[in-house]
Amino acid sequence: MAARAIVALSLILALVAIASGGASAQLSSGFYSRSCPGMLKAVRSALHPAIARERRVGASIVRLFFHDCFVQGCDASLLLDDAPGLRGEKNATPNKNSARGFEVIDAVKAAVEECCPGVVSCADILAIAAEESVVFLGGPSWEVKMGRRDSTTASFNGAENNIPPPTSGLANLTSLFAAQGLSQKDMVALSGL
Where is the Plant heme peroxidase family profile domain (predicted)? Predict the structure, then answer.
């Protein structure tokens, strides 16, 4: 049990470090308190049943957040599909046939849109869904600061170069995590997803 708590704490610290990157001065925990007070309830209404059906989905959501933050910051660029003039990140080697849970995030976004249309960014939905997944699965909670803006671009090359592929050795993993300001302890926690 103590080892599980240490891993959970490491995971939280790693996610907080990633999520609070360069725009931390603009983020706040009460960002939607007036514009969408029912946001958290809406997130839970779609997320919790999905995790209850398949518990592994919770870890998948955390992994989506981790992969999103490693490319252009925590901006939901991972959620963008390929389109004319836009090559998305979903089909990059570290994500293709590996990243999952997109349909759950779509359901969460739909629930939030029903509650308060056009208010909450997908980037914030992904961040809060990651935290709520950890909590729902029995892990600790942390304060999620919000106010992220959604990206209108994606970086296939960024995903290819910044997200550790499944074939990464220790030196490559350590280097890629260090580039994000994360330690080997953070790497172990996030690589286990």
Answer: 26-193
Q: Which of 67, 90, 109, 145 is catalytic?
A: 67
Number of domains making up the chain: 1
Q: Under DSSP, is residue 146 helix (H, G, I), strand (E, B) or coil? A: strand
* Residue 73 in marked binding region: yes
Rounded-to-5 percentages of helix, strand, coil across the chain: 55, 0, 40
Mean pLDDT across the stretch 85-105? Answer: 94
- 118-132 pLDDT per residue, tens: 999 999 999 999 999
CATH (domain of 167): 1.10.520.10
Burial class (CB in 10 A: 0-12, 13-18, 19+), 4: exposed
- 67 part of the active site: yes
150 labeled binding residue: no
